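Reading a protein record of the kind used here takes only a little practice. The record below shows the convention in full.

——
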Amino acid sequence: MSTPVLHAAPAAGLTARRRKHGPLRWVILIAVCLLALVTAAPFLLLVLNAFKSSADYSANGPLAWPTSFTLDAFTGYLSRVDFPVALTNSVVISVLVAFLGVAIGLLAAYAIGVGRVRGSTAIVSVLLLATMLPHEALIYPLFYGAQALGLLNTIWSVVIVFTVLQAAFATYLLSSVMSTVPRELLEAAALDGASRWQVLWRVVMPVLRPTLAVLVVFFFIWTWNEFYVPLVLLADPASQTVPIALSTLRGQHSIDITVLNAGSLLSLIPTLAFFLIFQRTLSRGVTAGAIK
């Protein structure tokens, strides 16, 4: 008869604990919902105003519900901007920079983190400094360098510039991760007859795969949103990216807000789709923290 009594005490304590933390859970849930609403408010306003007419926006303001949903803003944006060309340029530049930057950073970090080259600390410090420099400080040498090489007004000038910048950051990050790889693991692979390339692809790469996936996603989004350097290097409309195409909607004395919202919404869709496709990969890369 004593057994039910012994099991009843923990059950009663668990019930009391649930009752105690019950109101706190609801408060946290409400706070999280409010925070999510505040975070999503700019995007919701963007979508709302993209489907308004100019007259509706002028009469009722940005916070009012549309009197009628219309695609006039999207039609106006596509008639003023060569969006397919700008979209193609942005996709090509972002994809090339993302994968080339990660590949170059991986090879450089392998030499620094695993090869243990001399002066690795100084090299990593220089790479970190390069990632901290503002683009305004680099724009003059970048412009004249692209002009001297005949790459001005071509997407390759932007691809080269951002590949180098993103590779510097990737080298700094990956070299720190590679330095934590156990030496015993590398020595065991070498004793089995593996070359340096085989050690990289069969031993180091599986460990770094989640981090590399995160870097690809981040480099794609960062490059897609770049404005200042492409604005200077890509003056030709045939080579302009989506952010530059959006800037052309701003007139000297007036601006159509609904058209600008429609263009901004169209420019967000590719990055949002890319993020949703690689969301699971990104989550795995962020939560990965152990070397197996």
Remarks:
- Residues 2-50 form the longest helix (49 residues).
- The chain has a mean pLDDT of 83.
- The two ends are 49 Å apart (CA to CA).
